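Lesson 9: reading folded outputs for more than one chain in a single document. The general rule is that every protein is listed as its sequence immediately followed by its structure tokens, and records are never interleaved. Here is the first one.
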Amino acid sequence: MRKDALVSRMRLLPCALAVGLQLSTAAISFAQQAPLEIPSSTSATSAAPANPPSPFSMPQLPDLTRRDNFSAAMQIIILLTVLSLAPAILLMMTSFTRIVIVLALLRQALGTQQLPPNQIIVGLAMFMTFLVMGKTFQRINNEALQPYLAGTIDQKTALSVAVEPVRDFMEAQIEHAHNESDVDLFCDFAHEPRAKTWDQVGTITLIPAFMLSELKTGFLLGFKVYLPFLIIDLVISTILISMGMMMLPPALISLPFKLLLFVLVDGWRLVAASLMGSFGT
């Protein structure tokens, strides 16, 4: 029965194809005979309904030939640029470099491997940076940001005014650490005459000199923090060798003593206070 039904269906297939060809031929001939009517532009415009803008349509760029649109576009570009460079600015021109170096050396001196984690070290260094740089940020807000938002000064003036408090901070730290020779070093490599006053030092020359000064000061403070824990390691290793326990790692025994000493003297508070007090005003 199934074979008979399949044979009957196969017989009907040529008939269906013939009917389809006839219908398509008739439709083509009717289309050729029908006249093509082109509506006028006015009627098409009046009859065509206004299509609402699609939410997925491409956004239109502002007309940069107009002054106000160009200013708005430039404000957006500058804002995105500042946001992308904010981590670099935070590292290069603030107290973050010195603080994070000392905290990292402190963790290494304790021998606690990854405790505290990097997120806690960086977070603590960042908030300490906000405290140290509070007056500088306040000056930037009062002298540059608020006048610019109020429209009393333009962008170029606001940027030049905002750089001045940061330059004052970097100059004060270099003078406090007695690292004026770093400024002369970069002036020599920039083929510039050695400046006699800070006004003669360019910002591009001042920033690497400040970073070099901060690295030097940070490692010096880290050495002072590292020294007590090194003494504990030497004492523990001497005791173990005298007792004949040469196969026992000294770091395994000295770690609890270093943690106990650090907690008893309230080490975190002392280190934080020394770090924030090391920045000259």
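And here is the second record, again sequence then tokens.
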Amino acid sequence: MKSISNELKADPFGYVETLRSPIGVYLRREVFQKQVDSNLERVLRDKTVANQAADGSWNQLFADTANNLWNLYLLGHEAKDVSVKKGLEWLLTIQRHQYRGYPGFFLSGNRSDAHIMRSNVYGEFGPGCAIFYQTAYAVHLFHLFGFDDNQRVQAAVRSYLQFWRANWCGAWCTINVLRMLIEHRLSAGSEQVERGIKSLARRQTKRGSWKGFPFYHTFHALSRADQAIAKKQLKKAFQSVVKRQNKDGSWGEQRRETESFLVLDALKNIDALQHIY
């Protein structure tokens, strides 16, 4: 896709440079191809794993565990990392639920998770129904760490392919599940994904946003799709990306760091952000 770098209000790297966080490390390394301070990486890694329990979880909470595993991914850690391995193993211990008879669903059972999820402003997933938020996020994490072939993970994907429809639930549940289906190899080219992307196309406004759907999460989810209809929507959304940028180069308000990540990582995915430093 054509680069939109020259159309932005400000160079986003100026904002990214200020971030002393896993997102900041990822964006500097993966989006802007800049060397990252190894001391900062070590400090962030130590801080991330400091509160990991012996069972591999963080506080026996799905939200805390998933977000910390995502942090380790952003910091460049792989599946062989001890903390990553233990965290993923803990996720498998909560994969013991069915949805209307379909197996493979993740749900922690910790009542605090629902509250945390509803108020969560961090990461690639938003506050949908607990069982679908946790299952989509868990499958996504296994995907990031290279476990698409895990039979238990595939069981969850196969279940979704049997019942999921684009209008089956609310906007957050829809985009959470669609994001996961778009990227997993079992479902990426499925009829369900095609229908989901077409459903979003019907919701897209003249200004490029999607009526009733979170702009940044939808833009990022579509950036991982290969379908031409997804790329057409992304191109149409560029005007909104430019308009929404803050003067300091970031995006968003309350979720500024997350939403800046979603925009910049999406632009990297579709090769629409080209910088020379």
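What the second record shows: The beta strands are 97-99, 102-105.
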